[in-house]
Amino acid sequence: MMKRLLFILCLLPAFAFAQEETDIKYMAGAVPVVNGKVLFKKEIKAPNLSKDQIFDAVQAWANTRFKTDKGNWGQVAYSNKEEGQIACYGSEHMVFADKTFSLDRAKVNYRVNFICTPGKCDMEITNIHYIYPEDSKDRLPAEDWITDEQAMNKDQTKLIKRIAKFRIKTVDMVENLFEGAEKSLGVQPSATQAIAAAPVVAPPAQTVENIAATSGDALQGYKRIAPDKIPGNIIKMLSEDWMLITGGNGEKYNPMTASWGGLGYLYNKPVAFCFISPARYTYDLMDNGETYTLTFYTETYREALNYCGHNSGKDADKVKGAGLTTITTPSGSKAFSEAWMIIECRKMISQTINIDGISDPQLKKQWAGKAMHKMFIGEILNVWVK
Questions:
Q1: What is the span of the domain harbouring residue 102?
Q2: Average pLDDT over residues 178-204
Q3: Is the pLDDT of residue 198 over 70?
Q4: Model pLDDT for residues 271-297, shown as the tens digit of each residue
C-alpha cells in the first residue's frame, strides 16, 4: 500500500491549497471514520411528513440524481417502501482542474443509503473510493486517502497539499448530496460539517478480510429478501452488467464472470440457471460442489469483473487480483462483499448441452465440433441485497 501511495503521489500535479485559506469544514473531523470505514451520516428531519411521503420524495430525487448522464453513472439499486429503505450507487467525475490543454480529474464511486421513518430520513454515504488516473486499474479507498490520519499533518493543523484536493472535493460532494436530499423534503439545507457518529465496536469477524456470516440465514451487511422480490431487469443485469459465478467452498473456490443464465420456477421451486464451459476452472468446482453463488455488481466494479473474466483461477489468485473481499454464507458458500446482490443456490440439475438439441441452424453450425457448455440449475436458497 505504501509503495502504491508513493507512486500515486508522484503522479499528482501540485495542488497548492494555501493552508490559511482552507475552510475549517475541511479540517480535523471533516471525514468521519466508524469501524475503520469512512461514513458520512445525516439525520434529515421533516416532522410534518409521513414515512410514505418521505420515501416517495427521496426516491423521486434519487431517481433523478443517480442516473447515467454525461459520463457519470448511478442507479437506485434497491428500494422497499414498506420498510422505508433505499440504496443507491453513484460514480462521477471529480474535477480538480480544467484548463485548455490540461484536465485533472478522478473518478469517484460511492454508495448512499436512506432509511425513511415518520418525520425523518437517515442518510448515509459510504464505500467511497477513487480511480486516479482514470485509466488506472487500482481503486483507492477513501480510508487510505482522505482521513485525518492520511490527509493531515501530524498536528492536524494542515492538509497535505497533494492529497487535499481529494478530501476537499469529497466533502463538497457529500454536502451537495445532503442538500439535495434535504431540498427534496422541503427542508432548508443546513450548514454541513460531517460529525463522526459515536464509535461502534465491530465484531472481530468484520475486521478481517474474510467476513463470516452471522447465525441463521443472516449475512453481515445485507438484508435477506424472498426470491420473488429480486429487483432489477435480469436480462440487462446479465447481458450488460454481468455476474460472478462462484463455485467451491472452504479454501478452494473460484469466481468467474458470466452473462449466460436466468431466473425461473421449476419443480415448484424458485431457481437460477447458468452455463459454464468445461474449459473454465470453475467447471469442476461446480460439478463437485453442492452450493454456489451468483453475485451482481454496480458499474463501479466493472474492472473487477473484467479481471475475473480474463484470468484463470488455475494461474492466479483471482480474488486478490480483482480486489474483492470474500464473505462466507451461513451454509459455507463463498461470495464477495462488493456485490449489491447475492443469490445462493443449491445444485438441482446439471446437464451438458447436446449439439443435436440445438434447433437454430446457425447456432448448430457455429458450435459443431466444439465442447458444449454445461447447464446448472439451482434452487434459490437465499437472496441478500444491500
A1: 2-184
A2: 61
A3: no
A4: 999 999 999 999 999 999 999 999 999
Q: Could you read off the pLDDT of 70-111 as tens digits, one per residue?
A: 677 889 988 899 999 999 999 999 998 888 778 889 999 999
Q: Identify residue 128 by its one-letter amino acid code.
A: I
Does 215 score more than 60 pLDDT? no
Alpha-carbon distance of 45 to 251, in angstroms, equals 48
Paired residues of 151 in beta bridges = none
CA 94 – CA 36 distance, rounded (Å): 24
Query: Is 199 among the domain residues?
Result: no
Q: What SS3 state is found at 119?
A: coil
pTM: 0.52
Domains held by the chain: number:
2
Query: Is the backbone peptide bond immediately before 13 cis, with ω within 30 degrees of 0?
Result: no
Start-end of H helices in the chain: 2-11, 51-65, 148-151, 161-184, 234-236, 281-288, 302-310, 318-322, 361-367
Using a pLDDT cut of 90, give the percent of the chain over it: 63
What CATH number did the domain enclosing 102 receive? Answer: 3.30.530.80
Q: Looking at the structure, tell me whether residues 229 and 329 fall in a common domain.
A: yes
- Annotate 356-380 with DSSP letters as a single string: GG---HHHHHHHTTSPPPEEEEEEE
Whether residue 165 sits in one domain with residue 17: yes
> Does one domain contain both 271 and 179?
no
Q: What is the DSSP letter of 324?
A: -
In a domain, 50, yes or no: yes
50 and 163 within one domain: yes
Give the 3-state secondary structure percentages of the chain, helix then strand then coil, rounded to 5: 30, 35, 35
Q: Are 150 and 122 in contact (CB under 8 A)?
A: no
Q: What is the pLDDT of residue 190?
A: 61
Same domain, 214 and 164: no
Which three cell numbers mark 188?
A: 432548508
Tell me whether residue 202 is in a domain: no
The rounded percent of the chain whose pLDDT value lies above 70 is: 86
**Residues 247, 291 within the same domain:** yes
Task: For residue 244, give every residue at least 6 positions away whose Cβ sits within 8 Å of its Cβ, in sequence order, or none.
Answer: 255, 256, 257, 258, 293, 294, 295, 297, 305, 308, 336, 339
Residues 306 and 272 in one domain: yes
If asked whether residues 229 and 312 sit together in one domain, one would say yes
* pLDDT at res. 18: 37
